[in-house]
From TrEMBL:
Domain of life: Eukaryota
Subcellular location: Cell membrane
Name under which the protein is recorded: Ionotropic glutamate receptor C-terminal domain-containing protein
Signal peptide (from-to): none
Organism lineage: Eukaryota, Metazoa, Ecdysozoa, Arthropoda, Hexapoda
Major localization class: membrane
Membrane topology (UniProt): Multi-pass membrane protein
Species: Anopheles atroparvus (European mosquito)
Keywords (A to Z) from UniProt: Cell membrane, Glycoprotein, Membrane, Receptor, Transmembrane, Transmembrane helix
Length: 224
């Protein structure tokens, strides 16, 4: 009764970044996307009506040739590990596999986005039943005393901790394009200043030589 479904999108960003915070950010990003191949995932993605989630399915999950990026769990986690990939999956089983296969520095780049807004399931009782209030109080006590949280912790693996460490990762030209543009403008400004200084130096040398060749003549005067 304490089990509930929680599905998030887990993506490995090659460098720790907070740029992607919403589904809209993911939709406009260059990350590819996929989902675990389950019956309920196919249903949720194919029947979405919310504009952002529907566009995410049409542009990220469904390919132009009609195929869909519904992958087995191991293949999806490996795609996350390779980088620039977002994978919709139940986080408990996903984090268990990530803890077993990822390097420590790779765990530091994990980021979550909530795709399905799921709530705890309701408990049905007969209308005007005398058990309604005891059931309600008991459910609140399960949550208040931490029993529900303990069961969830036993059933679902938590997000792996980032212990530290770093490694070199490949980046594309798009990732460093702003830095290259800034560096290019810096080089252009430096060369322009160098040319200006050379021209100014030549102008001063030419002026000095002309003054030496043609000195200013003073008028002759006779002493009384």
């Amino acid at each position: 009764m304490l089990m509930f479904y929680s599905a998030n999108i887990v993506a490995l960003i090659q460098s720790p970044s907070t740029k992607i915070q919403t589904l809209d950010d993911l939709l406009t990003s260059r990350l590819k996307a996929g989902a675990e191949d389950t019956v309920y995932n196919r249903y949720y993605f194919q029947h979405q009506t919310e504009p952002i989630r529907k566009a995410l399915y049409e542009r990220k999950i469904r390919n132009k040739d009609g195929t869909e990026n519904f992958l087995p769990l191991a293949q999806g986690v490996e795609a996350i590990r390779q980088g620039y990939y977002a994978f919709h999956v139940e986080v408990g089983v996903c984090y268990k596999l990530i803890s077993e296969t990822f390097q420590e520095e790779e765990k530091c780049g994990l980021q979550e986005l909530e795709y399905l807004k799921m709530i705890d399931p309701y408990y049905a009782v007969r209308k005007n039943s005398s058990f309604r209030e005891p059931v309600r109080v008991t459910l609140f006590k399960l949550r208040e005393f931490g029993i529900q949280g303990r069961e969830n912790a036993l059933l679902y693996t938590k997000k792996p901790r980032c212990i530290g460490g770093s490694s070199f990762v490949p980046v594309s030209i798009v990732d460093v394009w702003p830095a290259l543009v800034t560096l290019g403008w810096g080089y252009l400004l430096t060369i322009s200043l160098l040319i200006f200084e050379l021209l100014w130096l030549r102008f001063n040398i030419t002026t000095s030589c002309e003054r030496k060749i043609n000195p200013t003549r003073r008028p002759l005067t006779r002493d009384p």
